[in-house]
Each structure stands twice: as C-alpha cells, then as structure tokens.
Specification:
Pdz3 Domain; single chain; seven-stranded antiparallel β-sheet; 407 residues; 3 domains; Thrombin, subunit H
C-alpha cells in the first residue's frame, strides 16, 4: 500500500492520471464474485422450503395500468414457468486450523499428525432456465462456482443431477446440462431491441421460495458494472425495478410475450427497485461457446485507459514529469500498457491517445472496450493514435484474456 505522504509528493499531473485510472474501464479486467457496495443475487444459505408455489395467480391478478390485459402476466407464468428451475449446489471446504494446534504440546494429545483440518459442506441455491429440449440450462457462474454437486429441480417436482459444461466469470454466465425426457424450454428474445419503460417479468427462487413471480419495467439499459459499484465485468446490464432478491440469480427476466430478455444477476444492497440482468444476447453468445468448448475467450488489448477532457489535458501538460504532451482534447488516453500484452507487442505506448478504432471515432474507454469485445481473438484491429503531435496507425491482434487475472 502506498504511503499517503509519498503520494502527496507525487507531481500533480501524475496524481491526476493515477486518480483517473481508478475509475477507468480496463481492457485487462479483474473479476470478483461479489459486487462492491452490493451483492450478487444468490442465496447462500441452507434451503428453507421444499414447497413450490406461484406468487401470482390468474384469479387474483391486480389490474394493470394503461388498460393492459389482466391475464398477461399469469399467461406468461403459465407458459414459461415450467422451464424455470431451482439449482442447488454444494461444495466441501477444508477449514484451516490455527498453527498453534499443531504445536508439539498439542501433538501429545492428538497424536503425531496433530489436529486434522475440519471439513464443512457449503450449500447454496439459485435459479436457471432451460433453453433447449436436450436439457441445456443457463444460469449465473457464481451460482455453481466451486460446486462439487449440482442438483436441478423442476416445477413439476422432478429432480436431476446437473453437469456444469462451462462457466465464464467475466460475464457471470454458466451452462448446466441435465438428462431427461419431455423437458420444457423457454423462448429467447432480443435484448438489443429493449427500451426503458417496457414490461419486465422475473421468475426465480428468492430466499428459497420457489417459482416466485415479480413484475415491473425495464428501467434502463447499458449499465456498466462500474455504474452499479462493482468490479469491471464484460457486460452492459439491463436495469429493472421488478423485485429481485438473493436466490433470483440465474433466473429469467421476461418480456410481455414470455421471451427471455435477460438473466437476473445482481442487486445493490440497501436500494429498492434496482435490479440488474445480463442481456440475453450476451448470455446466449457466451453460453453457446461454453457448451461447445467449456470456456469463453474474451479479446483484450492489455491497456489502462481514460477518456480525455480539457481539464485532464491541462493537468498533464502542466507537469514536466509525465514524459509526454497531449495536443488534443478528444479521444482515449492510454495511461498504462501492460508488459508483453498484445498492445505492447503492437507498439502502443503510455501517453498515446486513441482516436479511431477500425476507422470509427472513439471518445471513451467503454466504447473501445466494447469494440474490442466484439472482435475475435487474433483478428487484426486497426488503431489510430495521436502521439507527439502526429497520427500513428497501429495493427493490434487482441489476445485471450489471461485466466490468471480471474484468480
């Protein structure tokens, strides 16, 4: 950890870059299993109930605003509810005992091996939905992370042993497979066409209460993980005010036609009406590759970036210690290039200002990251940077995001 006094002695411009880098979008991203300032919507406790119930019934449905058919939500639940599943997972962990218990003094009581570490079984539950008649299920990666056993329970009472085909921490998507006959499935919609104000229906197993239904609207689209106070992930989330609670993780967010438009993933602690879902187009793309190969390759450049502003430019140029000068107010400043990364191998330098990517102008780090994410690993990306008053064109081949960064 830096000494605050040492930090105070840093040149002002350099401190500005370091401070800005705290908030930047990274091509090389870390991944955590919890959200800072919030928590993932998975229920990590002993299951409280084995009963199955529907929270909304056709006979008691409340009138919907705007003259909408009162049977809309019940019909959606009736049609797709059977394909929404509960996922129970468990894993055995070994707790580390204090070193003092292996002291020679204690060995005389417990034998030459000392005190054996204690093994405990951790259990959790989440949600998921069947997307094909052959038993493929999409859920959150954190629902099945580290699981020794996975059990999938259907609304009709059937129970199956699940096999995790693959999981991707950067998008929090996982695919589980079950074997069974006459399995229901759920249709997928198009999350790219979503607009704020459209209906949103969530089905899941919050707090162990099976097949709970909530409804609301799409509050916003394109929310970054930085927007919701968490570590950077490769997702632009759907925000909804449909009630989402621990245990809803991995369950579907549906439109009024009963099509999946998102996978419920996260909530912000202490806030009401702030739920977040992975867009189904993203989840389906990742799930397809997970089912085929067991993993998903995320293209990355290996740079830290921040969008330029006139204030940042002035701060950089006013200090003689930055090592470079900026002559533009627009573009994305490369604050750092990671050693041996694709960007470093292509000649990208700290202080470069990215102005265009594949001929398209860019103004913020998020747009660069999104453009790279939409490429393929190893596919050439043309980058135009501004360096020392001149335009420089570079060809970069994104690499696969290093697995070590997910640890």
């Amino acid at each position: 950890m830096e000494n605050p006094q040492d930090q105070d002695r840093q040149p002002k411009a350099k401190r500005g870059i370091n401070k800005a880098a705290t908030y930047l979008s990274l091509m090389l991203l870390g991944s955590g299993m919890t959200l800072a300032g919030g928590y993932l919507a998975s229920h990590q406790a002993q299951l409280q109930s084995e009963a199955s119930s529907i929270a909304v019934s056709p006979a008691k449905a409340a009138p919907l605003p705007g003259g909408t058919d009162n049977n809309l939500i019940p019909n959606v639940v009736r049609n797709v509810g059977p394909a929404v599943v509960r996922i129970d997972s468990s894993r055995t962990v070994t707790s580390q005992l204090p070193n003092e218990l292996n002291d020679p003094f204690f060995r005389q009581f417990f034998g030459s091996r000392g005190v054996a570490p204690e093994k405990q079984v951790q259990r959790g539950t989440g949600s998921g939905f069947i997307i094909s008649n052959d038993g493929r299920i999409i859920t959150n990666a954190h629902v099945v992370a580290g699981a020794d056993t996975v059990t999938v329970r259907l609304k009709d009472g059937r129970s199956f042993k699940g096999k995790v085909l693959g999981k991707d921490e950067l998008t929090d998507v996982a695919v589980v497979k079950i074997q069974g006959d006459n399995l229901p499935s759920i249709p997928l919609g198009n999350s790219d066409a979503l607009q704020p104000g459209q209906w949103a229906i969530a089905i899941g197993n919050p707090l162990g209460l099976d097949n709970t239904v909530t409804a609301g609207i799409i509050s916003a689209t394109g929310r970054s993980s930085r927007d919701i106070g968490g570590p950077e992930r490769r997702v632009e989330y759907i925000q909804t005010d449909a009630a989402i609670n621990p245990g809803n993780s991995g369950g579907p967010l549906l439109n009024e036609r009963g099509e999946v438009i998102g996978m419920n993933t996260a909530i912000i602690q202490g806030a009401n009406g702030l739920g977040f879902a992975v867009p189904i187009n993203t989840a389906q793309k990742v799930a397809t590759q997970l089912a085929a190969t067991g993993s998903f390759q995320h293209p990355y450049l290996g740079v830290q970036m921040i969008g330029l502003t006139p204030e940042l430019r002035q701060e950089i140029n006013s200090s003689p210690n930055t090592g470079f000068k900026i002559d533009t107010d627009r573009g994305v400043l490369v604050a750092k290039v990671l050693p041996n990364s694709p960007a470093a191998q292509a000649g990208v330098r700290a202080g470069d200002v990215i102005e265009k990517l594949n001929g398209q102008a860019v103004t913020d780090a998020g747009s660069v990251q999104k453009a790279v994410e939409n490429t393929q690993v190893g596919t050439e990306v043309n980058i135009q940077v501004r360096r020392n008053g001149q335009n420089v064109n570079l060809a970069v081949r994104p690499g696969a995001f290093p697995a070590a960064q997910l640890q």
